[in-house]
Amino acid sequence: MWKEMMLLAIAGGAGTLARYGTVSLFEHCFGRFLPWGTIAVNLIGCLLFGLIWSLAEERTVISPQSRFLLLTGFMGAFTTFSTFAFETGWYLEHSEWSLAALNLLGQLLGGIILVFVGLTLGRCV
Hints:
Radius of gyration: 17 Å
Structural class: mainly alpha
Strand content: under 5%
Oligomer: single chain
C-alpha cells in the first residue's frame, strides 16, 4: 500500500509540474486576455484521459495499475476537468440524459456559486 501511495504522489507531482509548465507556456505565448493556460490544460487533459482510458480498457496496452497512476495521480493533478468530462460523456454515451445534465449543472453552476460563497466567507472573516 505504501508503494502505491508513493507512486501516486510522484505521479501527482509530475501532473502538478506539467500543469504549471503548460499554463506558464500558454500565458507567455498568448497573454492573459483569456485564461489560455487553463483552457489548454483542460482540453489537453480531456484528450489524454480519453487516450489513456482507451489504451487501458479497450486495447489493454496499459495495465490497470498504470491506468490508476496515470488517471488518478498524473491527471488528477494536471486537471480534474478531464474526469468531469469523461463522466459526463459516459452518461451521454449511455443515454442517461438527466444524469448528464445534473452532473453538468451541479458541478459547473454549483462550483461557480461556491467560489462566490467562499469569497464572501473569506471577506467576512
